[in-house]
Amino acid sequence: MTSSAVLQAINGTSLAALLFLLASGFTLTFGLMRVVNMAHGAYYLLGGYIGLTIAERTGSFALAILGGGAGIVALGYLIDRFLIRQTGENHLAQVLLTVGIAFVIGDVALAIWGGDSLKVPAPAFLRGAMELPGGLVYPTYRFVLILFGVLVGGVLWVLYRKTQLGAVVRAGVDDREQVSATGINVDRLFVLVSALASFLAGMAGVVGGAFLTLYPGAEWEILVVALVVVIVGGLGSLEGAMLGALIVGLLDAYGRWLLPEFSYFVLFGPMAVLLLVRPRGIFGKDV
Amino acid sequence: MSEPLLSVREIHTYYGDSYVLQGVSLDLLEGRIVAILGRNGMGKTTLIRSVAGLTPPRRGAVVFKGRPLHGQPPYAIAQRGMAIVPQGRRIFRSLSVRENLLLPTSRLAHPAHVAGANGRRKRWDLDEVLKEFPQLAERIDHPGGTLSGGEQQMLAVGRALMANPDLILMDEPSEGLAPLLVRQIERIMKSVREHGHSILLVEQNFELAMSVADDIHVLASGRFVFQGTPAALSREVEVLDHHLGVSGNR
Fold this sequence. Notes:
The complex is a heterodimer of chains A (287) and B (250).
Chain A: H1 2-33, H2 40-58, H3 61-82, H4 91-113, E1 129-131, E2 137-139, H5 140-162, H6 164-174, H7 176-181, H8 186-209, H9 218-233, H10 238-258, H11 263-277
Antiparallel strand pairs in A: 1-2
Helix pairs in contact in A: 1-5, 1-8, 1-9, 1-10, 2-3, 2-4, 2-8, 2-9, 3-8, 5-6, 9-10, 9-11, 10-11
Chain B: E1 6-15, E2 18-28, E3 33-37, H1 44-52, E4 59-64, E5 67-68, H2 74-79, E6 82-85, H3 97-102, H4 126-132, H5 134-138, H6 149-162, E7 167-171, H7 179-194, E8 198-203, H8 206-212, E9 215-220, E10 223-228, H9 230-234, H10 237-243
Parallel strand pairs in B: 3-8, 3-9, 6-7, 7-8
Antiparallel strand pairs in B: 1-2, 1-4, 4-5, 9-10
């Protein structure tokens, strides 16, 4: 029993690492530009498929991660520049547009990669299981994923909190107009942040595709959970995405284990209660 | 006479549907302080926003350093050497005092434009600004949102100076400040002028404007009803009484 509880904690934390990759980009682009991009789940899936093809052709998982991320950076730039920009500040139009984009991406992916569940091949040294202290045996890949999530989270946090570029982004979240009156081109800044978000989403698809597999519909499943992360943590907050990912990852793992028939309720029930008490999420600020 | 640093020519600006500035013109020479006085709702803030490109005028021209600013976004105007101390200070609340001050030096703001057409122009950096505002030095790592009103105003002025602008737009810097702090603002404006910067000041505080300004314009319902020196304004009993609510027999 206790060892199962510990295993579920590790399961939840590794899912949290993946969710953080996806949710951090979503929350930062929203914080800076108030852009709601529902195609983020599709970015995840397509990035995963691109990475899968690269991994199969080259045998390199690192190249797959970079290529999956870079492919989505290019696609995301075009979508921002030519489609989302047309919606201005109209959130309803953004949601409709980006949901539509997600359907198009999903169909194109279906035509190219088919409807079967595909798994991105992880490098040999990450396959198999490892023994953790206390005699627990756990899949190496998912354990390393936790370390990877912590590493990416740490780099993002330093970038966001400790560099001047991060300060400019935070200033943009506070007061976009005043940032532009300070001589900073907020649109260009947004291109940078959006590229980072796209890269993280594409990379998450490759990383997630190696243990959750890739299949049509996976984009919506992951998007819904990532949205819960962002809402629980507070839209626009990087720290919120970290804490939200951990909470949601653990709720999901324990929910599937203890209350398998209520696993969705275990996610959305606490979210609803939290929103009653803190409508802006844990780290959310007044908008 | 040399060409004005800033020349506002017959601008008409709308805020939504309301017709706020109805043909306003003014010239500001380098190294001068020009003050706009007027009651609330007369269009003072709209004038500042028109010049900064935040609410561009529909007709007329704003010419800065000899080039019209028409159609340029606010960031491009700022990069040409204009900084703003906005109404309500608009400090970045979640940034520390240091981060607030350093923001204009970000490479994204292209701070390469080294101001200083004349040799007396002071080059502002973090050390110089903190010397000018010792209160800020004590709170350098505090979030901007935790500062008092007076400290936030110093921070807003310091942030503008960090851009080393040719022209500083100040929108009611004395608003909500205790008399002692208003005097500090007054002293700072004079010292900034000494250092070669020019200021376009919008104020409701009559004494402050009269004390610092080289030229004064009185704005009423979107038009100037007086333009001249403070000394000339003090003789305009009708303007003082009717548009500024200041008793004329002083």
